[in-house]
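Hi team, as promised in this morning's meeting, here are the two structures we talked about. I've kept the exact order from the run log so nobody has to guess. The first one is mostly here for context; it's the second one we should focus on when we meet again. Sequence first, then the predicted C-alpha cells.
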Amino acid sequence: MTGDQKPIRASREVIWHLTCGSCHYYWTYPTMNISEDISGKTFHCPLCGVKSDITVEDLTTNGQ
C-alpha cells in the first residue's frame, strides 16, 4: 500500500436457502454469524405463513 490507500475490507456472509414443506416457496436467510446453526429453529414461510421447524440437509454427499 502506498500513501493514504486503505485496505479493502471483506466480511463473510452465510446464506441459508429455505424451501417451505407446504407450498414449496423458496427464500433465503442471510446471516453474518458463521457459527449460527438454524437446524431446529422455527420459521414462518413468508408466502403461506406455515410455521415449521428447520431440517438442514447434508449436501456434502450431493443428497446420495
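And here is the second protein, the one for discussion:
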Amino acid sequence: MAVVNITINGRVYDIACDDTQVNRIQNLGREVDARAQHLLSTVGSVSDSRLLVMVGLLLADELGEARDELAKLGSEVGAAADGDTRLAGLIDSLAQRIEAIATRLERA
C-alpha cells in the first residue's frame, strides 16, 4: 500500500492507494488542483471545503455530459448496426435475383 502526497490549493493531502495506482492518483490530484486554480481565478477566494465542493460539482457535471454523449453514441452505433443488417439483407436479395436471372439466361 502506497501513500501519495497530492497538493490542492497549496494544501498537501496524503492519499493511500494501491502501489500500481500511484501515478494515476498523482495525475488525478494535478487535475483537481488545476480545476481548483481555474475556479479560484474565476470566483475569487473561497474556503477549501467550498472549493472542493465546487470542483466536485464541475467534475460530476462533466462526467454526466460524458455519460450522456456515450449513451447517444451507443444509440447511433446500434442504429448503424441495424442499418448494416438491413443492407446485408438487401444485398443478399439482390444476389439471389442476379443468380436467378443468370440461371434463366443460361437456359435460354
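Starting points for discussion:
Residues 2-107 form one domain.
The mean pLDDT is 90.
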